[in-house]
Amino acid sequence: MKISTVFTDRDGVLNVDKPDYLLRLEDVEIHEDVPAALARLTNAGIRVIVISNQAGIGKELISKRAAEAIFDEVIREAESGGGHIDAYYYCPHTWDDECNCRKPGIALFLRAAREHQFDIKGAVMIGDGFGDARAAEHLRIPFFLVGQGWGPVTKVKCDSSEVPYQQVKNFSEAADAILKLNEGSDT
Ligand SMILES: [Mg+2]
Ligand SMILES: [Zn+2]
pTM for the whole thing? Predict the structure, then answer.
């Protein structure tokens, strides 16, 4: 299977998650494995797109503008190893809004595929949350569950509800597994 695109969650995967919400620019702390791993994906011609739930916006804990400044900072730090993040999409709603863009909803994934013109079948997802796992399940794409952030809690939930995942330590290990999938494929 040739993988064209990696969807990745943000908090708990690219950067250290915070107990509540990541609300301040100075609290952005990139996981140290991320810059080099992102560069490996980019060098292999794989597109990387961030899909993130940011309910702090809907709860009015942070403005869209401030939230986007945090995305910019996470991306700037993630790209510091020479890799590239092609785009990010976020859901600003709370659970109560019953939108279809909040993961496990798949609206943002479909929008990304439309806007960047790729087939979802060639995508995979990396995340630490149960919403990430279930979104991947809905999309029928491989899911790489990192051991960081909500990872341990999500593992228990996936096991008890039979949501598929491949356990990895972090973004870097996921990237290596993805690159390996591509190695054996020539289409
Ligand atoms: Mg997360
Ligand atoms: Zn939403």
Answer: 0.96
